[in-house]
Structures are given as structure tokens and as C-alpha cells.
Amino acid sequence: MVVMNKYKKIQDELNIIGQSEKIREVIELVMSVAPTNISVLITGESGVGKEVIAKAIHELSPRRDKQMISVNCGAIPEGLLESELFGHEKGAFTGAIATKKGYFELADGGTIFLDEIGETPIQTQVKLLRVLESGEFMRVGSGELRKVDVRIIAATNRDLSRMVQSKQFRKDLYYRLKAITILVPPLRERKEDIPLLLKHFVEETLKENNVQFQGFTDDAVEVIKNYNWSGNIRELKNFAESIVILAAGKKVDAEMVRHHLHKYSDDQEFSTTLPMPVNTSVERAERELIYKALLSLGVEIRDMKEILLNMNRNIHDQVISEDVEDVSYQDEVQPMGEVEKQMIRKAMAKFNGNKRKAAQALEISERTLYRKLKEYDIE
């Protein structure tokens, strides 16, 4: 009974929902590490709820009365990240019209959550290591050492060990961060938790919207449980919100669920699980990733076909020449650039200008999205 009460407290107060063995293991780790000051690295796929775990650690810690500041390291432009984290002095750089405290100073006595830590530039990693080891840092433009008492929790969906091998991430920082590592399992590995999460998200949606909902049939729940959920909890939440509205007061059956989840499955050519091309440039691979994400933005299949037909016509016209190799790279990929621009516009419109949600839907970092918005002059 005591054990069950512990889990109920976590689930009710800290919004960690589930009864599977894997999520219980995560909860046990959270409760074990929370009372300490040791740094924690939370890993897992995009959308599994890493920030929820970080908040749970903070709320169960002696620092709960101080604030927890969350920083998305991938969303802040590289040139501004150091200033945002550590602050700056007036006149330190163009635009620094006043002295500003950074997130570490603001979180003094509390917790700082560094999401997408793998996106942090190497030069900033050096300063993060110093804060971890001594609690010391300097504002940008200042030679004065400052000291803070901050607990660091970091999160990533990237393989930091591989990044260490490729010199993209500092080994010393990696080992300091991973003193305790919590792996949050993907939703497909905790299927027994899906009905509980679904119920939670449906109830939230009904509270926020004045709509009627008759629930799900048993076979509909089975279809939902057995779906892959590559976007994890975030995808399930979006599904719950939309299906409640689309049901229009009717009971949702398996056929409606299948239609909603697999509305593009009749044309496998456009599957989002298509493999990425190899032996290509980073820019082209990036364009391909965004292109495939078009499906998740609700673009009609006929529009996709029309886009592809136009692209094929352009490429066909180019390769009719005597020497195919004479076709320039710029000419070959120009149509994809236009498609990319359209997708970014659709994503921004779909999420009412919310760059974080648009970047998540496109499966790119917010930093990349900011760069693309500037490149294509999209408001």
C-alpha cells in the first residue's frame, strides 16, 4: 500500500501518468535522485516527456521552494546562448544596452533544466563544465567571477556518446552530466499506459473546450494501443485533442481511429518512414527531412502529388540533355527549396506562429527554423 501511495503521489501531483513497469522504474529513479544535488541527464526520444521528469525531480527536491528555469538550448541562436545562460554587461556587444542577469543567476538556489543540451556549441560547453565543477561563471563582457548554487538537469534525444566520439560534445562535460542518467521509454514500449494517458488528455481537452464526447469503443482503444506512436506522448496528446473535436459528440470506433491515424496509408510513396538518402549533402538531407514532415502538417495527398509531378517535370526537362552530369546542383534542387518554403509557411500557419511547435512538427531544431525563416524572409 505504501508503494502504491508513492506512485499515486507522483502521478497526481507531478503529472507522470502510467502504471507500466518501465515507468515505475523511472519514478523510482526520480524519487531516489530528487533529494540530492547531483546532476541528472534525461535521455529519450522526442516527445516522451523529458521536461515532465525534470519538473518532478525539482518538485521532490529540497529546492522546490525556489524556481526551476527551463532553457531550450536548441531554440536560442548560437551567438546569444552564452549571454542568455550567463548574462552580460552593458556594452558587451552590439545591442547590450543594459546589464542583464543570465538564467544561472536567476535560478540561484533552484534548478536549471537544459533541454536539447546536445545543441550547445563547444565554447559554451566549456563554461557549462566550469559551473558544474565550481559553481563559477562570468557574464559576457565581464572579468568578475560570480558564484551560484544551482542544480543542473539536462536532457537530450541525441546520442551524446557518439557526439563525444565525433568531437561534437566534450567528454568531460558528458561524464559530469551523466552522473545519473534516466532513460524515458518511448510510448510503444509502455503500451499499457496508453489508455491512462489517452483518458487524461481527453479530459483536459473537454475542460478546455465546450464539446460533447461519448468516448471510445473497446476496439478503438485496441487500435490506439497498438499504433506505433513515433511522436510519443506529444503525438498522442495531439491525437486526443483532434479526435475529440472531430467526433462531434459521437462515440469513436476503430474505423474512425484508423482513418485518422492512417489517412495517408493508401499511398505508400508518401510514407513518413521512407529512408533518408545517403551520399548526399547536409543541406539536401535537411530538405528531405522537412519534405517528409509535410505529411504530419495535414497537407492533402493530391497537393503532394501535384508538387511531385511538377518537380519530376522540371528534373525530366533538365536530364534530357546529352550529358546528365552537366545539370547543375542548383538547378536540380531548386524545386525542393520552394517546397521547403511552403512547408515552413504551412507549419507556422498551423501553429499560429509558435516557432517551437512548428519546429517540432518539422523535426528540426528551433535554431534551424529561425535560420530558415530569415533565409526565406518569412514573417
The secondary structure category is alpha/beta
Task: Report the end-to-end length measured between terminal Cα atoms.
Answer: 56 Å
Q: Unreliable segments (pLDDT under 50, ≥5 consecutive)?
A: 264-282, 294-302, 311-334
Sheet with most strands: strand arrangement: 2-3-6-1-7
CATH architectural type of the largest domain: 3-Layer(aba) Sandwich
CATH superfamily of the largest domain: P-loop containing nucleotide triphosphate hydrolases
Mean pLDDT: 81
Report the strand count.
Answer: 7
Outline: globular
Descriptors:
379 residues, alpha/beta, Rossmann fold, Helicase, Ruva Protein, domain 3, five-stranded parallel β-sheet, two-stranded antiparallel sheet, 7 strands, 51% helix
SSE layout:
Elements (H helix, E strand, L loop, with lengths): L1 H13 L6 H13 L6 E4 L6 H10 L8 E5 L5 H9 L16 H4 L4 E5 L6 H13 L1 E2 L8 E2 L3 E6 L3 H6 L5 H7 L2 E4 L10 H15 L9 H9 L5 H16 L6 H8 L20 H12 L7 H19 L9 H22 L4 H8 L3 H10 L4
Parallel strand pairs: 1-6, 1-7, 2-3, 3-6
Antiparallel strand pairs: 4-5
Helix pairs in contact: 6-8, 9-11, 10-12, 13-15, 14-15, 15-16, 16-17
